[in-house]
Amino acid sequence: MSNPAEALDSEAVPAPPKGRLKVFLGYAAGVGKTYQMLAEAQELRRKGVDVVVGYFEPHGRQDTIGRTAGLEFVPRKKIEYRGSVFEELDTEAILRRKPAVCLVDEFAHTNVPGSERLKRWEDVQVLLNAGIDVFTTLNVQHLESLNDEVWGITGVRVRETVPDWVVDAADEVVLVDLTPEALQNRLERGAVYSTEKAKKAMENFFTETNLTALREMALRHTAHEVEGRLSDLSALARGRAALAARPGAEPPTRHERILICLTGRPSTAMLIRRGKRVADYLHADCLAVHVQRNSANGGKEAHSEALEKHLSFARNLHIQTHVLRGKDVAKSIVDFAREQNITQIFLGRAGAKSLWRAASTVHRVVRLARDREITIVAERRR
Amino acid sequence: MPAGIDRRPSPEELLRRVQAEERRARRGRLKVFLGYASRVGKSYRMLDEGRRRKERGEDVVVSCIQFPVTPDLEPLLRKLEVIPTLKGAYAGKEFEVLDVATTFRRHPQVCLVDELAYDNPPGSRNPKRWQDVDNILDQGIAVITAVNLQHIEEQQDAVERITGKRARQTVPERFLRSADEIVLVDAALDDMMQRAGAREPVDVRRLSELRELALLLAVDVIDDQLMNYLRSNGVELRWGTQERILVCVTPRSDACAMLRSGRRNADRFHGDLLVCHVRQSGLSPKDQQTINANLALALELEADVHVLEGPDPIAAIMRFAREQRVTQIFVGHSAPDRWKEMWSRGPVDRLIQAAKDIDIRIFPHPHTP
User: Do B235 and A210 touch (CB under 8 A)?
Assistant: First the structure.
C-alpha cells in the first residue's frame, strides 16, 4: 500500500510507466483461473492488443488448451539441472519481444536452481518494471500470511509462497469462484487431473471441508484486497485535501505500530506471519527486533543460522528489522518499544518449561511494558 | 481431515441429518450466481453453465430471460431451449412473468432463471419471481439463477449507505441462504469501466464498496454452510478461517478501551466480537455497577455477550473460548504495577499459560504511568 505523500510525489516527478499486474485468484487447482485469464487474453487479442503467453501450464486440460488457439507463445527457457531439463519462463526473451501484455501462469512457482531469479514472481517484477502488463494466476494458499491457517485446516504445509505485499501491489485482484461441488465433479470427470491422480487428490486435499475453508479464505482475501485499495483511495483523497489546505502538511492519522520480537526458535516463522498479518489488517507499521544477549564474560552469543533465516524472512515480507545488544533482553525490548512509539508488542510463547520461570522474557516483558499492548502469539499444532 | 475432534452425533443430529437428506432428495437443487453490480457477468456464467450441462447430456431449458440480450449472450442462447415468458401490461407497465405452468409440463432436469428479483403483476401465480422458483424446486427441478447484491432484502440498509438508493424489487436473504450452491461472480474494476464504456461515469469507490459487501455476504453464507456440514458430520473445527475475538471483562481492568479495540479489530478482520464475564460472588456494589456498565457498552457495540459460571474463572474462559473457536483473547492488567508481582503469578499469567493455541492480547491498566 503506498502512502499518500509518496503517491503525490510520484505524480510530481513522472516515473517510468510501470506495467499493470492483474492476479486471477482461486482456491485450488481446477477452479478455472487459467481458463478465465486466457478468455480475457483472447478478448484483448480480438481488440488488437499485443498479447503473448510467457508461461502456460496446460495440465492436459483440453478445454483450457482450446482457449490458447491463436495466441502467440514466447518459447520457454530450457535449464539443465542434475541431468534433467526443466523449462522456465524466459524473462529476457519476453523483454526483447516487449509485448503490451504477457500471461504468466502459476505466480508462486519456484524456479529451478540455476535460473536467473529464485521465484517466478520476481521474474514478473522485472517484466512490470519494463512496462509490460502481466496477467497471472495464484491460489490463496500460496499467500505467505495464510501459511499457518492453511496448514491448520488441511494439514498441508505449502512450500511455495508469495509475500503478501507483492499481491497487495497488484492493480487488480479478481476472484475466480467455483463451488466445491462443481470442482469435485470436475475432478471425478478427470477434467483437472488424470483420473488416478484425481482419486489421490480427492482423498487427501480436495475434501469438502478443505475446499470450503480454502474458498472462504479466497473470498475473504479478495475482500481484504478490495478494502485495501479503497483505503488507499481515501488516504489519497485525504492527503490531497490536506495538501490543498496547508501545503506540506501530513494527513493527521493516529498510527498503530507493531513490534515483533524474534528469536531463533522454530515457531518464530509463525510469529512473524501472525504479527505481519495483524499489522496489515490494522494498517499498522511493522517492525521486528532481536536482542542479542551479552554473555556474562563480556562476549556475545553467536548469531544462529536459524535467527539469520528469520531476519531475512521478515525482511522479505517488508518488515523493518533491528538487532540490538543488551544484558537484559526484556528490558532492551521494552526500551526499544518506547523509543520507537510501538503500540503493540508481539511475543512468541517460550518453551513450556521456561515460560513459568519468573525470569523468562515473556513474563518480564509483560511486567515491564504495562503501558502498551502485548500479544502472546499462539503456537498452533495439529 | 480438518484439525478437529470427532464426536459421535446425537440422536437429534442424526434425525436432522436424515430429514435434511430427505428434503434435499425430493427438492430440486438451487444454484445462485451472485454479482455485485449489473454487467459483472452473472447471466453469462449462468447460461454458460446451462450450455455445458446440456452438452454433458442434461435436459436444460431457459425459463426466464429478458430479450433483447447483450451480444455476448446470443451464441449461448442459440444452443439452449427457451420457454417464452408471459407478457402483459398492468397499470400501464409492461411485465414479463415466468411461465411456471409450462415449465411444470415441460419438466426439464435443469431450469435457468435470470433476474431472480422481480415483482410479478397482481393476479399472477405468485407476487415474486423467487416464489415461482421455489415452486419449481418443489417439483424436483433444479434451478440455476442469478441475482445482484443490491436486490437482497436484508442488505438494503448497507446498499443505501453506499448508493443512496434502495431496490424496489428484492429477494429475502433466507432464500439465498437456502441455496445448495452459491457462486460469487467477481469482475475487476477496470473491466467494469470498460464495459460501461464512455456512456456513463463509473464511481470506483461505490463499486468497490458494493464488491466488498458482496464478497463478505458470500463468505458469510459459505461459512454457515461449512459449519452446518461439520455439525451434521460430527466434526468440530478447532479454528476456522474467521477471526473471533473474545474480550474478558473484569471490574479492575480498562474494559472500555478493550471493548472499543475489540470492535475495531473484529471489523478490520471482518470477524466476530464476543465478550464474557465470569460471575463472581462478593463483588462490591461499585464493582458490580462497573461490570454492568461495561456489559451494556459491549451490547451497544453489537458484541455477543456471555456471562459465565464456574469456580475457576480461567478454566471457564478457556472452555468457552475453545467452544466458540476464539482466535484472540483480550484481557487487561488488573492493577498498576506492584513490585511483588514482578516475581509472582497472577491471573493474566495463568491465562497465558492455559491458552496455548489462542493469541492473548494484554491491555494496559488506565492508571499505569
Answer: no
* Separation between Cα atoms, residue A227 and residue A45, nearest integer Å: 31
Ramachandran angles phi, psi of A161, nearest 5°: -125, 160
Residues of chain A by 3-state class (helix, strand, coil), percent to 5: 45, 20, 35
The Cα of B86 is separated from the nearest Cα of chain A by a number of Å equal to 33
Contact at 8 Å (CB) between B360 and A376?
yes
Question: For chain A, how big is the Rg over CA atoms in Å?
Answer: 24
How long, in residues, is chain B?
A: 369
Paired with B244 in beta bridges are B272
- The A133-139 sheet, strands edge to edge: A72-73, A51-55, A101-104, A133-139, A21-26, A172-175
> How far is residue B16's CA from residue B13's CA, in Å, rounded to a whole number?
5
- Please state the pTM of the whole predicted model: 0.85
- Contact partners, residue B235, CB within 8 Å, separation at least 6: A209, B1, B2, B4, B5, B6, B7
Grid look-up 516463522 returns A269
Question: What is d(CA B138, CA B29) in angstroms, rounded to the nearest whole number?
Answer: 10
- Beta strands in A108-246, from DSSP E residues, in sequence order: 133-139, 172-175
Element (H, E) at B223: helix B204-232
Cell reading at A377: 502469539
Question: What is the ipTM score, two decimals?
Answer: 0.84
A369 three-state secondary structure: coil
- Rounded to an integer, what is the distance from CA B251 to the centroid of its chain? 35
Nearest alpha-carbon partner for A51 in A134, A173, A138, A170 = A134
With contacts defined as CB-CB under 8 Å, which chain A residues touch B345?
356, 358
Which residues does chain A have within 8 Å of residue B270's beta carbon, measured at their own beta carbons?
220, 223-224
How far apart (Å, rounded) are the C-alpha atoms in residues A37 and A51? 12
Contact residues, chain A, for B268 at CB < 8 Å: 281-282
Q: CA A72 → CA A137, A335, B74, B315, distances in Å?
A: 18, 59, 28, 64
Could you list the pLDDT tens digit for every one of the 382 residues in chain A?
Answer: 445 444 444 455 555 689 999 999 999 989 999 999 999 999 999 999 999 999 998 877 777 888 899 999 999 999 999 999 999 999 999 999 999 999 999 999 999 999 999 999 999 999 999 999 999 999 999 999 999 989 988 888 999 999 999 999 999 999 999 999 999 888 888 777 777 776 777 677 788 888 999 999 999 999 999 998 888 877 767 666 655 554 444 434 458 999 999 998 888 999 999 999 999 998 899 999 999 987 655 455 556 889 999 999 999 999 999 999 998 999 999 999 999 999 999 999 875 555 455 568 888 898 888 889 999 998 877 6
- Chain A interface includes B136 (CB < 8 A): no
DSSP string, B69-83: PPGGGHHHHHTSEEP
Q: How far is CA B231 from the centre of its chain?
A: 17
H or E stretch at A102: strand A101-104
- Longest CA span, chain B: 85
Cα–Cα distance for residue pair A347/B234, rounded to 1 Å? 35
Using a CB-CB cut-off of 8 Å, the residues of chain A touching B205 are 230, 233
B 344-363 near A (Cβ less than 8 A): 344-345, 348-349, 352-353, 355-363
How many Cα atoms are found within 13 Å in the side-chain-facing hemisphere of B146?
26
